[in-house]
Write a structure and sequence with these properties.
This protein is α/β, with parallel strands linked by helices and 327 residues long. The chain has a single domain, classed as NAD(P)-binding Rossmann-like Domain (Rossmann fold). Helix content is 43%, strand content 13%. Strands 3-2-1-4-5-7-8 form a 7-stranded parallel beta sheet, sandwiched between helices. Strands 6-9 form a two-stranded parallel sheet. α1 links the parallel β1 and β2. α2 packs parallel to α3, α3 packs parallel to α5 and α10 crosses α12. The radius of gyration is 20 Å and the shape is globular. The protein starts with a strand and ends in a 21-residue tail after the last helix. Bound molecules: nicotinamide-adenine-dinucleotide.
Length: 327
């Protein structure tokens, strides 16, 4: 397929474009920032740029990953967010319909499901971690990033309903390589933090790219659908109260070896976990599961520290007797 990928110069785009090419797709990257993965240097906010890119390259599918996002909230105006994330998405959807594009994948974010109240967690008086699925409502995004991504999701739905354009929305959790902007408060190394987050709110950039490849394949069969994309969580809904009170004990129940593996590196688990993204719908309906989760990362850490091969750590059946299966 001839695929237009927006945001092709970015962190995800630089992994996604070669991955699509390896599948045999012809890829046209569109991004205001030049890069080897970008053929069209321009903005999705410019209708003419979008029209020309889709029409002149005979585009058959669009993956819309370009955006202003969390790091830009402090630096860019709300009007810029609206122009890029909302008007830019509408430009792509309408030009896609006008030129017979037959599928569209939109990179959204789990961030739009996080209200200020959820973010406040235990300090805000929460009695338990919030178990987050695609059904969660009402959605009260806490910043202009979430508000514009949610508006863009609704435009995707609207255009699908009016024109039958197949659209898959991927609400991805975090995969950025940088340190968390709260790193000074968290007080853990970046690698320690990212490994902890694989339990409930992170995935690798390779898995994020792979989810887009699968969504592209599945879009016509799905019509319109929205999926949380995050590494499999070992936790269950029954764990939410304990997770906010004593997360390390809950993690140790599932991964009895983790305290020793962490201790060898001087790592710590978060004291409290305030949310869990449940990616099981993507597994069931989209047919996509991340390859790398906490379990896989822990196995790597164990193998690295004792020089052995890739020995998986022990995983204990959950209290209800079901084995850990990524749900
Ligand atoms: N990184 C994460 O942890 C994370 C988490 C959830 C969702 N996302 C989403 O994933 C997508 C990719 O994020 P990323 O981590 O690769 O970020 P990134 O900033 O590395 O890449 C985003 C790309 O979008 C481009 N872009 C900005 N304005 C544009 C415009 N007007 N037209 C076209 N392209 C434009 C940027 O130049 C950049 O290359 C974004 O939609 C983001 O909202 C990212």
């Amino acid at each position: 397929m001839r695929v237009l990928v927006t945001g092709s110069s970015g962190w995800l785009g630089r992994t996604l474009v070669p991955r699509l090419r390896a599948e045999g797709h012809e890829v046209v990257g569109l991004d205001p920032v030049p890069a080897p993965t970008t053929a069209v240097v321009g903005s999705v906010a410019d209708r003419g740029v979008v029209r020309t890119a889709i029409r002149d390259h005979g585009i058959e599918a669009v993956i819309h990953a370009g955006a202003l996002h969390k790091p830009h909230v402090a630096r860019r105006s709300r009007a810029d967010f609206l122009a890029v994330n909302v008007a830019g998405t509408l430009n792509l959807l309408e030009e896609a319909v006008a030129h017979g594009v037959d599928r569209f994948v939109f990179t959204s974010t789990t961030s739009l499901m996080i209200s200020n109240a959820i973010r406040a967690g235990r300090a805000g008086g929460a009695a338990g971690a919030v178990w987050i699925t695609e059904e969660m409502a009402p959605l009260l995004p806490r910043n202009v990033y979430g508000v514009t991504k949610l508006a863009a999701e609704h435009l995707c739905r609207l255009v699908h309903e009016e024109h039958r354009l197949p659209v898959v929305v991927l609400r991805t959790s975090r995969f950025f390589p940088e340190e968390d902007d709260m790193a000074h408060e968290i007080g853990l190394s970046g690698e320690n933090t990212k490994t902890n987050e694989l339990l409930f709110r992170r995935l690798t950039v390779e898995d994020a790219a792979e989810a887009h490849v699968v969504a592209l394949e599945q879009a016509p069969a799905l019509g319109f659908d929205t999926f949380i994309v995050s590494a499999p969580t070992p936790f269950r809904r029954e764990d939410t109260e304990s997770l906010i009170e004593r997360a390390p004990a809950v993690v140790a129940r599932y991964f009895p070896d983790y305290p020793a593996i962490y201790a060898r590196r001087g790592w710590s688990m978060f004291d409290s976990i305030d949310r869990v993204y449940d990616p099981s719908k993507a597994d069931r309906v989209l047919g996509f599961t991340c390859r790398t989760g906490f379990r896989e990362r822990l196995a790597e850490l164990a193998a690295e520290s004792d020089g052995r091969g890739h020995a998986p750590p022990r995983v204990v059946a959950n209290p209800a007797g079901r084995p850990y299966n990524g749900e």
